[in-house]
Each structure stands twice: as C-alpha cells, then as structure tokens.
Amino acid sequence: MQSEIREISPVLFEVTVEVPWERIQKDLNDTYREIGKTARIRGFRPGKAPKNVVKQVYGRQVKAQVTGTLVEQGLMQAVQEHELHIVAQPEMEQAPQLQQGQPLTFKAKVEVRPKIDKVLTEGIEAWQRPIDVPREDVDAEVERLRHQHAEIQVPEPMHPAQEGDLITIDYEVSVDGEAKQQLGAKGRQVEIGDAQLLPALKDGLLGMQPGDEKTIEVAFEEDHPNPDLQGKTAVFAVTATDLHEKLLPELDDEFAKDCGDYETLLELRLKIREGLEQGEKRRAEAEVKDQLVTSLIEHNDIPVPPSMVQQQQQMMMYEMAQLMQMTGQAGAPGEDFFKGLEDRAQRRVQAGILLGSLARQEGIEVTDADLNAKFQEIADQTGKHVAKVKADYQEAQRDALESQLLEEKVMALLTERANIREGEPPAPAEPVETSEEASQNEADEGEES
Predict the structure, then answer these.
(1) Which CATH number does the domain housing residue 187 bear?
(2) Which stretches of the chain drop beneath a pLDDT of 50?
C-alpha cells in the first residue's frame, strides 16, 4: 500500500491511500477460500461448492468485506507511517468501489493533535490574593451553628408567623386558571427567612397562624427552569397547619461545648476561623492555577481539533446534568451555562494538550512510588487498609488518579517557574484603538451620515 498526506490545517490532514490490484486479488481469493470451506449452497454439500459458484452467491458480500478491511488497514498504516496523532474517526470523502484489475484509491480527512515543538513557560504569571476572613464570616458561621442547635417548640401562646419560624403548609398551585397538581404539596415545612424560599411566598406566609388560609401570587422569571412557569404568575392557595419557633442557645462556653470538643466560645471561634481560612486558601490556590493555565495558553496559541472541542462540550453538559441531579435541580441548565460554552470547552482542550506536551517535554512521569504515596494518603483519610484502597482503584479509576497526579506535578513545575505576585489581579485594560481602526470607524460614520 502507498499513502501520502496533505496538510489542510495544523489539525486537519487529507490522507490518500492506494492499494495495488495484486493485494486486492489476494485478499479476495483468501476470503472466497475461507467462505467456501463452510458455505451452504443449494445443490452442493457444505464446503463443496465450486469457486465460481461461491463467487456468484457471495460476490457482493466478499467485495464489501474486503473493501472495508483494506480501507481500515490502509488508513491505519498511513497514520503510523506519517506519525499522525489522530483524535477522531477518519471522514471518508466517498465510499470506494472495487474495479476488476484496478488499484483501490480512497481519500479521508483526519483530525490530529497539533504538533508542538516546544511549550513556552517564560513569562507565565499569576496573582496570589491575600487570605482574609472577615469577622462577619466567623459570626455568620457561629449563627448557623446556633440555628443548628436550636430547640424547636410550639409557641406559647401562639403568635403569627414571623422571621425564623417554621411553618407547615398545604398548598395547591394554579397557572392561568389551570391547576398544576404536580406543583402542590401537603405537610411541607418551610422556614420563614430561608434563602431558598421565594420572596413573594415568604412575604405571604408572614403573619399566618395554624388554620389560616391565604392566596399568594408569585411571579416567575422568563428563564425559570420549569417551562410551565416561565414568565407566568402562579397562584398559591395556602393553608397553614402548624407553626413552630426556634429557641436559639446563648452564645457562651456551654454552647461551644455542645458544638464539639471545645472548652470555650473563643476556642470555637478560632477553630471556625481556621476552617474558613483553609477554605479561602484552597480557593486562592485554585484561582492561581486557573490564572497559570490562562497565561500558559496566552503564551502558546495553539489550534485545537473541532471534534475534541465538541467532545469536551458534551462532557461539560454531562457533568452539569450530574451536578443538577445531585443537588435536586429539575429542568435544563440555565442560559448562563450555555453562554460561552464552546469557548470554555476550547480552553479546556488547549490546557489539556499543553499540559500533556509540557509533561513529555520535561520528562515528568507518575511513578509507582507516587501512586503508593497517594494510596497511603487516601487510606489515612478514609480509615481503610491501603490494600483495600489499591483494590478499589482499578483500570479507569487508576488511570484517572494517574492523570490527576501528573497534572499536579506539571502545575507544580509551572508554579515554580511562574512569576507569582501578591495582591489582587489588575482589572483587564480597555482595548486601545489603533490609528487604522480609528480611521475605519470615522469612514463608517461618514457613510452612515
């Protein structure tokens, strides 16, 4: 077989393959021979039909089978011969047809990874913002713990529902006069003041007591996840059936002891601050990593195969669907998710290609010692025996863990080489209009006038 390639773009090549008639004839004869050994043809014992009869009965099937095999083998050989790192199935221009005594020639377009001679890391930079946990954040966490440890009781004497109370309601919902049974509920307890509670519903529930009935109108946005409610005003027919109030504990050392292994309220607050600072530190490190990747892409502008971007988009949509399912969200992702989805997917692909190329360029690998250390770390965190952890990580999971460790090593290299500055990153500068653009804009304005 002979093959040649033509570069259409850095990530797209046209492959032309020619298979000589001698090879085609050999494969045809071999295939007829194999089929003839077991062929069941009327008038002949199994495997005893003459070759010309076998050809007559199975000719079309054999030609299609041989053509498909030769195309597959020809493309594979061409890819190996020309060292093409393909990322998707080749796309045939047209289905090739066998002709007696003629070579089989076919063309296909293949997407490939871009060839990167060197990944540039000079000039990579990022900003490390200071870790600052305001006192208000600690206060908010303490308040959350107070609500978590609150006593729930029926008010004595009963009072109208107020901020912080728990009210149990039955309600039916109608939209445009049509009942929506799937949206109604019975015996649902809601906290007045919960951030998840619709503001209009909260305002309507304030002041209600057990036995009260009320009609509450709630207007929904045009982009609401539920298509039945988009841009609609729903009418909630609410009946209050029960009411409880929260008795919050005093902020003292006894409260701290109830929250865990703390002796004083100060000790609890210090522990809360430490946890919040650790969370802020993780977020700041993630921001630095994101900036480093962005800077790496800016210093290495590489094209990406469209099929890889499409696959990444599908993966991102799948990840979002899983997240929505885990958090109990219904419907489709909002418009904000799809806005810029292709650009985000392209960035992910660019980052993956560059980080992988940098790892090969610098000889970065994941060793058995690295994996064993990670297995031991997981074992220490989960309380499992390290042998059980290793058994849990097989094939795909192990590959994913190796990829994670490799990325961590590459990011550590980038961090070491990068210029990490302290402080908040500067706001992006306004684009400067060149003299040529200014002249063009003035010309356009003149035409409009």
Answers:
(1) 3.10.50.40
(2) 429, 431-436, 438-439, 442-443, 445-449
Q: Rounded to an integer, what distance in angstroms lies between the CA atom of residue 222 and that of residue 230?
A: 5
The DSSP string of 310-323 is: HHHHHHHHHHHHHH
Please give the tally of structural domains in the chain: 3
* Whether the Cβ atoms of residue 167 and residue 205 lie closer than 8 Å to each other: yes
Residue 9's identity, in one-letter code, is: S
Distance (Å, whole) CA 340 – CA 358: 27
Do residues 44 and 57 make contact, with C-beta atoms less than 8 angstroms apart?
no
Residue 119 lies in a domain: no
**Cβ count near 442 (within 10 Å):** 10
Residues 242/210, Cβ–Cβ less than 8 Å: yes
Closest CA to 230 of 339, 335, 337: 335
Looking at the structure, tell me whether residues 185 and 101 fall in a common domain.
Answer: no
402-430 pLDDT, tens digit per residue, is 999 999 999 999 999 999 998 887 765 45
pLDDT tens by residue, 230-257: 899 999 999 999 999 999 999 999 999 9
Residue-wise DSSP of 100-121: TTS-EEEEEEEEBPPP-S----
User: What number of other Cβ atoms are within 10 A of residue 126's Cβ?
Assistant: 20
> Would residue 239 count as lying in a domain?
yes
pTM: 0.71
Question: In whole angstroms, what is the distance from residue 57 CA to residue 51 CA?
Answer: 10
C-alpha 294/C-alpha 429 separation (Å) is 16
Q: What is the CATH number of the domain that holds 345?
A: 1.10.3120.10
Which domain covers residue 164, as residue numbers? 151-247
